[in-house]
Write a structure and sequence with these properties.
The complex is a heterotrimer.
Chain A lengths: L17 H5 L15 E7 L5 E7 L1 H5 L3 E6 L27 E2 L5 E7 L2 H8 L3 E6 L6 H4 L15 E9 L2 H7 L2 E9 L11 E7 L3 E6 L4 H12 L6 E4 L15 H13 L3 E4 L2 H6 L7 E9 L5 E13 L5 H11 L8 E10 L13 H19 L3 H8 L6 E2 L3 E2 L5 H15 L6 E11 L14 E7 L5 E5 L8 H13 L6 E4 L17 H28 L7 E4 L2 E4 L6 E3 H11 L5 E7 L11 E12 L6 E11 L6 H20 L5 E2 L2 E2 L17 E6 L22 H13 L5 E2 L3 H12 L6
Parallel strand pairs in A: 1-12, 8-31, 10-11, 14-15, 20-21, 27-30
Antiparallel strand pairs in A: 1-5, 2-4, 2-6, 3-5, 7-15, 8-13, 9-10, 9-12, 13-14, 16-17, 18-26, 19-20, 19-25, 22-23, 23-24, 26-27, 28-29
Helix pairs in contact in A: 6-7, 9-10, 10-17, 13-14, 16-17
Chain B lengths: L3 E7 L2 E7 L5 H8 L18 E4 L2 E4 L12 E3 L12 H9 L8 H14 L6 H7 L11 H11 L8
Parallel strand pairs in B: 1-5
Antiparallel strand pairs in B: 1-2, 3-4, 3-5
Chain C lengths: L5 E3 L4 H11 L3 E4 L5 H6 L7 E4 L9 E4 L3 E5 L4 H6 L1 H6 L1 H8 L4 H6 L2 H7 L6 H7 L3 E6 L2 E6 L17 E7 L6 E8 L9 E9 L5 E9 L6 E2 L1 H7 L6 H14 L10 H25 L1
Parallel strand pairs in C: 1-3, 2-3
Antiparallel strand pairs in C: 4-5, 5-8, 6-7, 6-8, 9-10, 10-11, 11-12
Helix pairs in contact in C: 9-10, 10-11
Classes of the chains: A alpha+beta, B alpha+beta, C alpha+beta.
Chain lengths: 761, 161, 290
């Protein structure tokens, strides 16, 4: 590891909001209480597919304490969606008017003086449904005679995506060995510790304030404006502390919408907090997929051709599902050089809860198929699992044809480090093995499907007379530590100590627009904006310093650790705060303000930069019961320049816990459109005694696109784990597991199949 | 339904409430007394974000009737700091970055504190892990939390250490 | 939402029994509430009167007598049982079971009496206590009776308690010579309820033959059941690998498990076979050394 030449970056610091969080002072939307506040509850469809004939709210309105009941007919009926650039993908009326398309879909909402009364009122709303035939399996929904879920969408296929380069058929001809496999990937619930929540307060001056648990205050400001008929700037979205997002909280949800509609009717604040059950059944989950993969290689392991066809279970509405469809196909080629590649993805509507985005965004599913198949191919050909990957690995500067140019790439080093680590482990006992998976992930997306006119990220740096820096960003801290990471970048760029930085975020009235915390974008995009703003401010400050010191023009001035100095003679200088005072006086009492922004231009189809990793999971299998015990999880990781050291470790371990869940715990069966385990007893989230120790081996690279060479860390790390676990099972037992999550009963059944001589299940 | 008088101690101060007996301890603390540090996250006593101490024992405030703690001493996360000075567990959490979104943190810290009070010298980290088994965290993967508790157990935050 | 109720807090067992006698079906008992409050919140239990016996210290005890055996009062918490040096010494399988029950928070407030009265088929204590040949003392204002725990559950979530009765204590006979007990539940996460569970108690007799066997299957039927065929297989035998395996197969046949999202019926039977085979072997080896 090279020595750290930075003053602030890559050090262990307390998060800037740590104090509030460890003392119970942090107030989440869950805690917000406003004067005169009412409580809202949502009535939900019990049917997976039905026409709404009538809704009679008279009895509910009579219940003492009930102040309002609204249905879709009380709204503008706007079909909204987050892919604003493509109106046909904006298909969701949150309080649906004509039809319900999934169990749990909102049909009415109540505001009352207590939560209990609001809930009691739900039972008094009389909804008449005409039950329609439903379909909850995408492979059934694409059949000719399947019920149509959205009028005009043939075969329920609402999005298709195609990625291709090279001549796939020719490349398959050249291959010495071809293998094809089918996989089934499950969904997953975000299971944020704070459920969906909103407090909406509309006032007679036609302004709306919404406190909400969100990954993007700006998105919600814009989306609410669209569905409520208000001006964007008349809506204020506040999110000071957010109890987790993981990809589930940047689309408009029923808590925000219904609370707003009720509040607008009453001009009173209305609070809606989802119960844990509602959070499970009526929010958008990770996209379940059916994958077909055909791969052709040379007998020395050189990759020739890959063809993949994917059907995703889209659920009732699109949400971010179109992006998941694309990214799964794109990352299915990662992180290798393919002579020829073809991907066809089909997103299929079904009568179940909508599938959208969740940390990893289609890549964990893609890796589960690709990385396992590679190990099986290696086994079929007698090749080493590291060598086969090394042979085909991405390298810096590689062009994914028509898609992306790879900037920095530490994949080769990651493979070397993991190879070393595995060798050092030595032989393992029976039924225990190490499985590996490589992966690469985007650092922020380049496509503006939200159709925002604003820069993707912006930042404003304002310096007060005491040297304290007010840093205004639109980037949202949802626990990943962006407030701290951005404060560190600001401090480093300006040359001041971290404690000088005061971060303002989570309030659209006071912060610039930013697309928000998703797609691993904030460190790179908001980080670049912050760096630019801080450097702008520093430049302005140094103009005063130059004037003051009057050094020969050849000498440079800089600021480091609060010390403004001559770079050649650092002992000569002045304290940063003294300079600030002079600058303020020099500007007629005006503070120095630096501005920065970032929007990717001409960075390919996907992302300006890619993180890379190779993960090794060591697992023990109980051959009789099928139970898995994960002993350790070691990752060689290239995220460019690490910024927030503790944040990075936290992201790696947190991602691993979520990805282990996807690999072998978080089964989410949906039967006849019904989520069968919408509670924390039956939906299994990993707990402390079951969590393996995680080791990180950081690989040194520098990414020119990122601030100080930084890339993402935290989403990419969900990609490899399920695949590595599958590979561990393969090497320990010979079983090829083609379904995620891998449950013990599946392993027992796979053993039985194997015994019967059936080979791979 | 007759309301019940509840007299109890929260963070060493005595409080008196006149409440519907079905009021949960977490509701009494959050809604009646304004101690919003303690959270709620589920309906099945599974997640642990509502953990407080009752007479030193970690319990889930969402699954205890408030009227059952008459005369008892409740400690919430707000009660750990003393005149602005943080409890060693809180400082350890800061040092190890043992939190991210923070929603589980209050309950997690209370479980950690109760565990260390009972087991000041855990024999290994697995014992620590079992000590926080009742608390879910979706962000950290627990390992940083275990490191924080371990640091306190090993005396890193002892006065004069 | 919890429905309103009238709250009653008896100061003594006698008072509690009088309240039950007066209100009968109109009253429900709460102790720790770790199971009850959850179902009350779901609206599954609605009661006019709630009799709170959590504060009945009279029933908070663990005593042991070499002739009478172990007595645990109904309001004793799981945590107290878990940490009791007496129980760790004399009935280590009980302490081990408690250590893996739910979470520390639940064990700090929940009680053994409440757990047994809740009659959850997947509950941990009942199979272990039945393997130990436990009985419960049931009191009403009319008197006291004793019921072997294996006869306490007529059906799923049902007990033999009449509306005016409550459990006051659990009795476990003194440990027999050359006897060992073991308990294992199968789950994905350490302290989850078992997808299935098995509790075994084996005694070694003269000539290295199995003198007594009690095998209890948990969450393998609507109530904990004794695998009596499996027991008969072991008794009078000199158990070996083959017999332990056969015990597993037999227990699997005796089970009557449900299929749910966690496991199919077939997999539950499979797990019972594996667990029973393993535990009978473990208990036998321990008993031989005792």
């Amino acid at each position: 590891m090279t020595t750290n030449t930075y003053s602030v970056l890559n050090r262990r610091v307390h998060n800037v909001d740590g104090h509030a969080k460890v003392t119970g002072r942090a107030t989440y939307t869950f805690d917000v209480k406003l004067p005169g506040m009412l409580y809202g509850k949502i009535l939900r469809s019990p049917h997976p597919h039905a026409r709404i004939i009538s809704i009679d709210t008279t009895e509910a309105l009579k219940l003492p304490g009930v102040r309002a009941v609204v249905t879709g007919k009380d709204t503008l009926g706007v079909k909204q969606g987050i892919w604003r650039r493509y109106p046909e993908l904006c298909d969701e009326q949150i309080l649906t008017i004509e039809k319900v398309r999934y169990i749990g879909e909102p049909v009415a909402a109540v505001a009352a003086v207590t939560e209990e009364i609001a809930e009691a009122a739900l039972d008094l709303i009389d909804v008449r449904y005409e039950v329609l035939p439903f379909v909850d399996d995408p492979m059934e929904a694409i059949k000719k005679d399947a019920p149509i879920i959205h009028e005009g969408v043939e075969r329920n296929v609402n999005v298709t995506r195609h990625i291709e380069w090279g001549d796939v058929e020719e490349a398959f001809e050249e291959a010495d060995y071809v293998r094809e496999d089918w996989f089934k990937l499950g969904g997953q619930a975000h299971m944020c510790m704070e459920t969906r929540a909103a407090v909406a307060s509309y006032t007679p001056d036609k302004k709306l304030t919404v406190y909400t648990s969100t990954q993007s205050p700006y998105y919600h400001q814009a989306l609410l404006a669209g569905v409520l008929g208000l001006r964007e700037s008349d809506i204020r979205v506040i999110a000071h502390y957010v109890g987790g997002g993981f990809g589930g909280k940047f689309e408009l949800d029923a808590a925000q919408f219904c609370a707003s509609v009720l509040s607008m009717k009453l001009s009173k604040p209305v609070k809606i907090v989802f119960t844990r059950e509602e959070d499970f059944i009526a929010t958008k989950r990770r996209t379940p997929m059916f994958y077909y993969v055909r791969t052709g290689v040379k007998k020395d392991g050189t990759f020739c051709a890959r063809e993949a066809r994917v059907f995703t279970n889209g659920g009732a509405y699109t949400g971010m599902g179109a992006t998941a469809l694309y990214l799964t196909g794109f990352f299915h080629s990662f992180p290798y050089k393919w002579k020829a590649y073809r991907y066809d993805g089909y997103r299929v509507y079904t009568n179940s809860l909508p599938s959208s985005s969740m940390r990893g965004f289609g890549a964990p599913q893609a890796m589960f198929c690709s990385e396992q198949q590679i190990d099986w191919i290696a086994a079929d050909l007698g090749l080493d699992v590291i060598d086969i990957r090394r042979k085909n690995a991405h390298t810096a500067g590689y062009e994914v044809p028509g898609q992306a140019t790879i900037g920095s790439c530490g994949l080769g080093q990651c493979l070397d480090k993991i190879e070393e680590w595995i060798k050092a482990k030595g032989p393992l006992p029976k039924n225990r093995a190490i499985g590996i998976s490589a992966a690469g992930f985007m650092t922020g997306g380049i496509f503006n499907w939200f159709d925002s006119p604003y820069s993707f990220s912006s930042a404003v740096v304002t310096i007060n007379v005491d040297g304290v820096v007010e840093l205004h960003v639109g980037a949202q801290d949802i626990g990943q530590g962006s407030n701290t990471t951005l404060a560190m970048i600001c401090a480093e760029a300006l040359g001041v100590k971290l404690e000088n930085i005061k971060v303002h975020s989570g309030d659209t009235d006071h912060c610039p627009a930013d697309l928000g915390a998703w797609g691993s974008r904030q460190t790179l995009m908001a980080g670049n904006a912050v760096k630019m703003a801080a450097e702008d401010a520093k430049k302005q400050l140094l103009e005063f310093a130059n004037a003051k010191f009057g050094y020969n023009i050849i000498y440079d001035l800089d600021i480091k650790n609060d010390w403004v100095h001559n770079v050649a003679r650092p002992e000569r200088g002045m304290h940063y705060v003294d300079l600030v005072k002079e600058a303020l006086r020099g500007k007629d009492g005006q503070r120095i303000i630096g501005r920065g922004h970032y929007t990717p231009h001409r960075k390919g189809m996907i992302s300006p930069a890619y993180s890379y990793m190779v993960q090794a999971v060591e697992a023990q299998i109980d051959a009789e019961t099928g139970k898995l015990s994960i002993k350790s999880c070691t990752t060689a990781h290239d995220c460019g320049q690490p910024i927030n050291t503790l944040g990075l470790i936290g992201q790696l371990e947190g991602a691993a816990s979520m990805a282990v869940g996807y690999g072998c715990l978080e089964n989410m069966p949906v039967e006849d459109g019904k989520v069968m385990n919408p509670n924390l007893v039956d939906y299994k989230i990993i707990r402390a005694p079951d969590m393996p120790e995680c080791e990180i081996i950081e690989i040194d690279t520098f990414e020119p696109e990122g601030p100080y060479g930084a890339k993402e860390a935290g989403e990419g790390l969900t990609n490899p784990t399920a695949a590595a676990l599958g590979n561990a099972i393969f090497h320990a037992t010979g079983l090829q597991m083609k379904q995620a999550p891998i449950m013990p009963e599946m392993i027992v059944n796979a053993y039985r199949e194997k015994k019967k001589g059936g080979g791979a299940p | 339904m007759e309301k019940q008088l509840l007299r109890f101690y929260v963070n060493e101060h005595e409080y008196e409430l006149f409440i519907n007996p079905k009021t949960l301890l977490v509701e009494a603390l959050r809604d009646h007394l304004g101690f919003t540090g303690t959270k709620r996250g589920c309906d099945t006593a599974s997640c642990g974000v509502c953990t407080v101490m009752v007479n030193g024992m970690a319990v889930k405030g969402c699954t205890v009737l408030a009227v059952q703690v008459g005369g008892m001493h409740i400690t919430t996360v707000e009660g750990l700091e003393r005149d602005g000075k943080l409890d060693p567990v809180q400082t350890a959490f800061l040092d190890e970055g043992a939190y991210q979104c923070g929603f589980c943190t209050s309950g997690m810290i209370m479980s950690a504190r109760a565990f260390l009070n009972e087991t000041p010298a855990p024999k290994d980290t697995m014992e620590i892990r079992r000590g926080i088994e009742g608390n879910l965290c979706r962000c950290t993967g627990y390992n940083s939390i275990v490191r924080a508790i371990d640091a306190v157990a090993k005396g890193k935050y002892r006065e004069g250490a | 939402m919890i429905h309103d109720f009238t709250y009653l807090r008896p100061g003594k067992v006698k008072e509690a029994l009088a309240m039950l006698a007066q209100h009968r079906d109109g009253a429900k008992i709460i102790c720790g509430g770790q199971s009850l409050l959850i179902i009350m919140r779901q609206g599954l239990v609605v009661t006019e009167f709630l009799v709170d016996i959590k504060g009945l210290d009279e029933l908070n005890f663990i005593t042991y007598d070499p002739r009478a055996g172990l007595k645990i009062g109904a309001t004793t918490t799981h945590r107290t049982i878990e940490k009791s040096p007496l129980i760790k010494e004399k009935y280590p399988v009980l302490a081990a079971m408690e250590e893996k029950l739910a979470s520390i928070q639940v064990r700090n407030w929940g009680t053994i009496g409440g757990n047994l009265a809740h009659a959850d088929a997947a509950g941990d204590p009942a199979p272990v206590l039945i393997a130990l040949n436990a009985s419960v003392t049931i009191a009403s204002s009319a008197g006291v009776r004793s019921v072997p725990l294996e006869e306490f559950y007529p059906g799923l979530f049902e007990t033999v308690l009449a509306p005016d009765e409550m459990v006051t204590e659990v009795l476990v006979p003194p440990p027999s010579a050359r006897t060992a007990a073991a308990y294992q539940k199968f789950n994905l996460l350490e302290s989850d309820q078992g997808i299935v569970a098995v509790a075994v108690s084996l005694s070694v007799g003269d000539g290295g033959v199995c003198k007594d066997a009690r095998i209890v299957l948990g969450n393998a039927a609507p109530v904990p059941i004794r695998a009596k065929k499996t027991e008969r297989l072991l008794i009078e035998s000199a158990p070996n690998e083959e017999i332990f395996a056969k015990a597993g197969e037999t227990a699997a046949e005796e089970a009557d498990p449900v299929a749910d999202i966690h496991a199919s019926e077939d997999y539950r039977r499979h797990l019972i076979a594996v667990l029973t085979g393993r535990l009978t072997k473990e208990a036998w080896e321990q008993a031989c050394q005792a």
